[in-house]
Fold each of these.
Amino acid sequence: MIVEIGHFALVLSLSVALVQSVLPMLGARRGDQRLMETGTIAASGGFVLIAIAFSALMASYVTSDFSVLNVFENSNSRQPLLYKFTSTWGNHEGSMLLWVLILAFFGALVALFGRDLPATLKANVLSVQAWILAAFLLFILLTSNPFQRLDPAPMEGQDLNPILQDVGLAIHPPMLYLGYVGFSIAFSFAIAALIDGRIDAAWARWVRPWTLIAWIFLTLGIAMGSYWAYYELGWGGWWFWDPVENASFMPWLAGTALLHSALVMEKRAALKIWTILLAILTFSLSLLGTFLVRSGVLTSVHAFATDPARGVFILAILCLFIGGALVLFALRASALEGGGLFAPISREGALVFNNLFLTTAAATVLVGTLYPLLLEVVAGEKISVGAPFFDLTFGPVMVPLLFAVPFGPLLGWKRGDLLGAAQRLYFAAGCALAALVGILAYTGGTKILTAFGFALAFWLLFGSLTDLFSRAAFLKKGWRTGLARFVGLPRSAFGTALAHFGLGVTLLGIVSVSSFQEEVITTMAPGSSVEIAGYSLTFDRIAQRPGANFDAQAVHFSVRRDGVVMTEIDSSKRFFPVRQMTTTESGIWTHGFSQLYVSLGDPSADKQSIVVRIWWKPLVTLIWIGAVFMAVGGAFSLADRRLRVGAPERSRRKASLAEA
Amino acid sequence: MTRKAKRLYSIGAMLVVVGAAAGLVLTALSSSVAYFQSPTDLVKNVPGPTQRIRLGGLVEEGTVKRDGSSHVTFSVTDTVDSVPVTYTGILPDLFREGQGVIAEGTLGPDRVFVADTVLAKHDETYMPKEVVDDLKARGLWEDGKGLVKKPEETVSAAPVGAGS
């Protein structure tokens, strides 16, 4: 019964979405207030309906109702409760349902919190939002119905893919989708502005918080996925340039560019057309990501679907929305007026520089991701584009951008003083130089690239904080006044500094791991020891540990330094009998920011010894901690008063006075 | 600077950056991508020693040998030809005899494939897409059914003296 209610609610939400895609826009055309108002009701009602559908599916998972095909295929009654919940989105159908749930959620947010929006803009935005929603609801109902029944109902389900039975994976998809799908708001605003033929600074002030929210979640989602791959796959790598990873990384790059260009538009009313285009591109890349992951054109753990109908359907949605948006852009962009002028060396100039490099970087990733697919379709040749390609393309594009980051916030609007900015960065430059010399001395001059990598990371770390400290003027005004000034700085200044600082933290982690990690692969038997990075690992014992729906073979290691036991590490392999699959649970010891990582291989023929792979990963956790800094920076920016959602006119003016 | 000159400069700068990136992409595409080959392809056309290859096929039954440490040798077959592979490291969880596998690396001068990466992905029904396409082309694979003939059966069914 619950299942039928869910199915019905989903069908109903499609009709609501269809109404929402027409009426509010019609109202905006005719200036009919009542028609425009329908958008608000439809958006919130649609969200409630989809939430009911989603809860119904989740309820069937939690109660292990195997009369539902989807539940039977992806769940098992012996799974721990947490994974019964998360099984809901651990499969193609459920994950698409989560996708539209979040899309409807954002639509409802605009409907409810957008009271201060100009009525026509809001009506248009909600209609555009409903087009996307209707397309994906149709996709779910026609090709990926999660509520399909199975008769007779089997006694037991086929279990969730064991590799997905992990806390990290429980949170990763919702986070990622909040990011991916959140960019739809920026897209809808862009389309609405094009339809209206009107765009101003208020538009940017509206779009930026939504983009920021999406960006924060996407940042965390990507970091989460990366850390999951790192500990769960047992290969010790944190980024594989897998097409599925790229699918989430491209919208991130474009979204980061959008955040920065919207800033120019908001403050200086310039770059209007470009910002609109970026908003369209960012969400297009999200759609492309959905297509790549959901259509099954790639074979990977993420591709649950191998049904060609699905691929064609999503491809059609993709072409319709991207193509339609770009055509609209081509027709209407010239109607938008150009904005303020600025010198090349200025804050605006720096942000343009940022946009140029970020979009170029996104383009290289796009080429690396799509080229193998195109080549296969056109020439039938199969190639694989991996890390070597991206090291050669993405890397060099990012270096100038990273170098320029500390300058940006120090340059004034309209016309900046590059020399003045450089002078304020002397401390950061000194730190970078010290890192360069230090690493060269430490490695005996052999690792020049590493030394430059460390220097760049330190340049970023200290350079991003320079703006805060020079604005607080600790040195000129004494620490007491300085502290008062520091606290009084706008939160967006902290946001910028923290996010850029996070970039430096991540870079430091990446450079450190890629140059100084140590690795040992060896066969070990109980009692044997191995040395790595000054630690000695002893293979104590091997034990069988049954879990709820798996059997684990765990190896217990003790870690010693100079004879003193530092810690103990458990590394195991889990065997899931339902799916006949084995997963690796790597044993990780975090020491400071570094990690000792142990993963198990196959036992020898006589079962007496086992292949063990051990890594010493110096500062590896910084890679993800940096992402957290970026997200926190985003949150600070979001809390800035001028961006507070629905900031009324008066406080906005006050904020701009305070800035001046 | 006039508005027009500024626009020219900025377009020029953009072209430089985008051009440089395009150059990088083209270089990288010609030098650092790996081509997928089946054992038959590899036996027919011997690639250069530096050409990265993704060798895909089935792990031939009875060929997996571990020499007591982390060094493994096995053969990859597409039921017509097979290529010996050596690999040092931990094999993926789903690496099994008779299952699909992709080995990435280079072909050594002794015609032994030296793999630095071995992929046998996360699902027990998973077969690398390239391998499936290749087997399909030989009529050994059907959608929805999987492998229709076991590799060793095909080999034993081959007429004696057919050159294999």
Amino acid sequence: MLDVKLHDIGEGMTEGEIVHYFVKEGDHVKADQPLVEVQTDKMVAELPSPGTGTIKEIVVPVGETVQVGTTLLYLEGEGAEPQSSEPAPAEADAASEEHAVTQLAAKELTKKRIQTTINRVLATPFTRKIARDHGIDIENVQATDPSGRVTEEDVYQYINGEQAAKPEPQAPTREQAVQSTQPDEIPFRGIRKQIANKMTKSIYTIPHVTHFDEINMTRLVELREELKASGDSISVPAFLVKALTIALKDFPVFNAELDEENETIVLKKDYHIGLATDTSDGLIVPVLHHADQKSIQQLHDEIKELNQKTKEGQLKPADMQNGTFTVSNVGPLGSTGATPIINYPETALIAFHKTKKMPIVSEDNEIVIGHMMNVSMSFDHRVADGAKAVDFTNRLAGLIENPNKLMLEMI
Amino acid sequence: MVVGEITEERDLIIIGGGPGGYTAAIRAAQLGLEVTLVEQADLGGICLNQGCIPSKVWTHAAKKKSEIPQMQKMGLDVSTGEIDLDTLIDYKSQITEQLRKGVEALCQANKIEVIQGKATFTGGDRIGVEYGHQFDTYLFDKAIIATGSTAVFPEHFPKQGERIFLSHDIFNFKEIPEHLIVYGRDLIAFEMATTYQSFGSKVTLIQDDDINLDQAIEKELKRSLKKKKIRLIKKDSLKSIEETDEGVIVSLTDDKGKEQTIEGSHLYTSGDRQPNLEPLGIDRFGIGQTSDGHIIVNNTMQSSIPSIYAIGDVTEGPSLAIKAIKQGKVAAEAIAGKNPEVDLTFLPTIMHTTPPIASVGLTEQEAEEHDLDIHVGQFNLNANGYAKLTGQTDGMIKVISDANTEIILGIHMIGEGAIELSSTFVQLLEMAAKVEDVTFPLYAHPSTNEGLLEAVDALTGQSIHLPPTKQQTKIVERSLT
């Protein structure tokens, strides 16, 4: 039995009035089906069903105002699989099915344990920790000792770039061949490894400088709310990418690539914005191509799509190539500052941190509440200098702080 | 229900004060975090109060009782040699209380805020805590779910009666059953079987699943059960379990297709374990779960909601405190910005049976299934001087090494001393030790430790206390055949 409680739907609500029930006692409901409409001081919201099952009892009558945490109704659940539309199986069968699933999971774990034991990197826990602390995968470190044991020294050599990347094994063993038929793991390894190599190359090639600034997001937040009220929900990153492309056009040196061999700095005419994305496999950077030629709505849609593809592991190599500048939008995860590594061979990368409500001094010398966001911008000091970076972030801040200005720049 | 007017903010909220939860809390506090720990019952959780600790009071008592004949041989006067369960239950209560107070004191000393109440997620970034008529909401930066699991009856089991015990209920029963039927779901079943046999019960053990032990260890375990007159039945399908005024009747078909009816006075099962997640309501916020309802986590215990971590029985894998404790530390360290990881590859299998079992790494069957070239060394404890003088000669140690690299792949032991030696086994595997790494060091003499040395020496036919014909060495080298 599941008790469906009034939970905080957002903005720190503490109570709500029950407006309407979409269901009655005895009804069969599916997961995410709306159960009840609740009026808060800010909005009317629908509470979805937390699972599939039957409504046993409605506790709170319509019209009553209750506190967050109050049980509204009881739902007799049908187990973890919410999509089941078939008649509920007999209890014993359900239990036995669950047991079978557990057994299967246990078998999978045993298989994984055996594989790890056989294919493990021969390194002590201490050596493995050094690798973790430096953000490298110990599997990429080559053992210099003929015994195949990866030592502390090997790891440090790898960190210092004194070791070439480990060659890919020539012919996969039978076990590996079996493994590669499983989706979601192997196809991503190549992509990930490429990026890892790039990052390592970046940090040992590019003299990084990171410059910090803060941007007042208050007006952008307001604009978003206005748009939202009129039915257009646009994510913050869409605005930020738009502003970036405009600022980059004014400061082309940050949308560039240093060609050391030919002694030139190549200013790119395309604005392909990489979007650093956190996935279960680690950091992946899908690229939003020709960002400068797209409307904010298009940017919003494409960012969403790329995000989705990234999370689902559906990215193709083309989706990750030819970036000219990278954005790391870590704000939703939190953080106030970072020293990001440039996505080699690009010249610069900007990280957008968490937008927080802060007391700020307004133009009228009053303390008001503003939405403030920190940014950390890393750039290649061989290509540009600090003053230029400050000019660039000032321009960027100007566009974001006065989003109306964005319009002036639209094509 | 009264609702707190103010939503309080916390850096780290840990829900559940079991071995995983309180370990996470202390480690997080050690790393400078301000920690709030929400527990609805007693600190220490099932493990300390009802599970691991009480069960080890029982297995320890059983072990000591089984040593009485040896004590008498050595001239110790142990007059009746009987066990009084009333006293044992009191002893268990004293021990759990002392340990619980210890945990409480440690939490206090580490300035951990402990809230007694029932937690529910009311948002992806907040929980409500209900205690009595109070309901307070806490906003958190990070949360760790450590709510553990609950034992439930396996399928076809009748509702719990006077004579049927689920999991730790048996530790409150003040009689020694005349004939205890143990229905085996896991390792605890084997522990209860040897424990109650030692206490004086007739025991029938119904094994309902394969145990994932090395074949030699399993064979020795079965031999030991037989010697104790514990009847072992491998079940194929269970037909019914019926409780009467006099006892419990189990009808089943065994693995040889024979129908059997077992009549006992009582029945014990450790049951299946179900993660305690439903009351938390976290599924409403889209946390990633496996098809059997466990929270999916990465190797730093982070869930699909980046601010929420999960440890212990609510995550996949065996429901063991060993796992929860490690995961608790890792979650706390990850939240504090360190780079820890959980790797359960060398999670030891531990059974406090009489004699006990400790096993880690590859079994011989597993190595064979994967076509590995291996050496197998085995040493029986009856050739160990210390085992002889303590009268604990039942059992053996078996070591499996890679024939090409000499790296130790697995160590398995049944016999007295296995539990304490298990850490050495795990360390050798974690360090990727080779044969010489085990044979080079000096070993206490006389001691059970020497058994490990001799088993490893047997890999090369050089165990001192085994005659040449009994060096239990086996070489499986497929590349040569």
